[in-house]
């Protein structure tokens, strides 16, 4: 069932408010932070996990070589973290997020302002006032 025009406008307003309040979280939810490099990061991470698992098995099979198993575990853990974590962004590379509303910096307001606006809208809607 498709959304009505009013519902689409409400959804768009909520998305814009989310981007204005917490753009990093919104980008994480939409998956826009992932780029072309994510496949190569996954492959490098997978390779590290395989190498680490091999080291763990060799450390266990060789007997008293506990340190080889520990190194293997660290390599595996590092590979998983590398594959899952988002790449660090430089100052020049920014994701494409919607621009903020004119005149709103977002720094002087707390997180509760978003919730307060949504509560006010809900009260107006429930009272029949609409938008």
Automatic annotation (TrEMBL):
- Give the residue spans that cross the bilayer: 42-60, 66-86
Give the region (Disordered) as residue ranges.
88-131
Q: Does the keyword tRNA-binding apply?
A: no
Q: Which UniProt keywords apply?
A: Membrane, Transmembrane, Transmembrane helix
Where does this protein have compositionally biased stretches of type Low complexity? 88-104
* Transmembrane is among the record's keywords: yes
InterPro entries from the entry?
Answer: DUF3040
Biased composition annotated in UniProt, kind: Basic and acidic residues: 117-131
Name recorded for this polypeptide: DUF3040 domain-containing protein
Please spell out the taxonomic lineage of the organism that makes this protein. Answer: Bacteria, Bacillati, Actinomycetota, Actinomycetes, Micrococcales
């Amino acid at each position: 069932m498709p959304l009505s025009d009013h519902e689409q406008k409400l959804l768009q307003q909520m998305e814009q408010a989310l981007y204005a309040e917490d753009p990093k979280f919104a980008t994480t939810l939409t998956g826009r932070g992932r780029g072309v490099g994510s496949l190569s990061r996954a492959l490098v991470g997978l390779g590290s996990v395989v190498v680490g698992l091999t080291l763990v098995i060799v450390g266990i099979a060789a007997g008293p070589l506990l340190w080889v198993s520990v190194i293997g575990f660290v390599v595996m853990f590092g590979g998983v973290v590398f594959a899952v974590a988002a790449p660090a962004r430089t100052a020049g590379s920014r994701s494409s997020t919607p621009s903020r509303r004119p005149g709103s910096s977002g720094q002087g307001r707390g997180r509760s302002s978003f919730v307060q606006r949504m509560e006010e809208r809900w009260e107006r809607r429930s009272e029949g006032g609409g938008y």
